[in-house]
Design brief:
Number of strands: 7
Shape: globular
Order of helices and strands: EHEHEHEHEHEEH
Distance between the termini: 10 Å
Radius of gyration: 16 Å
Strand content: 15-25%
Strand order of the largest sheet: 3-2-1-4-5-6-7
Bound molecules: 5-O-phosphono-beta-D-ribofuranosylamine
Helix content: 25-40%
Mean pLDDT: 97
Number of helices: 6
Length: 198
């Protein structure tokens, strides 16, 4: 399957960057077709512009009317022939209309081994703090399909790491982010080769 990716990100965009690097080096055959952010000050936006991806800031600041915002997003997805959305640290819920428009081909990466440590409020350091507090032996990252409930859709791919005795939430976060950078591209490659079907 030829992937024409629309990236959605709100902050650093390191996961998107890892995917872009793999595309650049020919390890992934996907096209980086579109970038959308709700944060006009994000590093992710700078990264997307540097990679010459058509980039747009769309938020309640640019569109006070939700329907207009959703319609504009859908127009852009069509204009750039996007057939998959890759959420990479996108801090907004994606409206069902947008998800349906792409036949549910919307992926997210979560910094823990779902179904544990997911759901509302489970983002950023909250996740890693909670994992440490629960005395888990492993953590990791999960790529899953996005549906209307936080961190709930079908799990597509996971990678785990050991939690070390002296791990803090911060040290764990750093190691999990590194495997996220491998896992997201690995998942896209498997979708490309029909080894994961979505
Ligand atoms: C990652 O930890 C990811 O799991 C979560 O948001 C973070 C995004 O990091 N969904 P970055 O913006 O890709 O650096």
């Amino acid at each position: 399957m030829q992937l024409n990716i629309a990236f959605f990100a709100s902050h650093g965009g390191s996961n998107m960057q890892a995917i872009l690097d793999n595309i650049f080096h020919g390890r992934l055959k996907a096209n980086a077709s579109l970038f959308i952010t709700n944060n006009s000050n994000s590093l992710a936006l700078e990264r997307a512009k540097s990679a010459n991806i058509p980039s747009y800031h769309i938020s309640s600041k640019t569109h006070s009317n939700d329907d207009n915002r959703i319609e504009h997003t859908i127009e852009l997805l069509d204009k750039y022939n996007c057939n998959i959305i890759v959420l990479a640290g996108y801090m907004k819920i994606l409206e069902p209309k947008i998800i349906r428009h792409l036949n549910n081909r919307v992926l997210n990466i979560h910094p823990a081994l779902l179904p544990k440590f997911g759901g509302e409020g489970m983002f950023g350091m909250n996740v890693h703090r909670s994992v440490i507090e629960h005395g888990e032996k492993f953590s990791g990252a999960t790529v899953h399909i996005v549906d209307e409930v936080y961190d709930n859709g079908k799990i597509l791919n996971q990678m785990s790491i050991n939690i070390l005795e002296n791990d803090t939430a911060e040290s764990l976060a750093g190691r999990v982010l590194k495997i996220e950078h491998i896992l997201y591209s690995d998942t896209l490659k498997k979708i490309e080769n029909s080894r994961i079907l979505i």
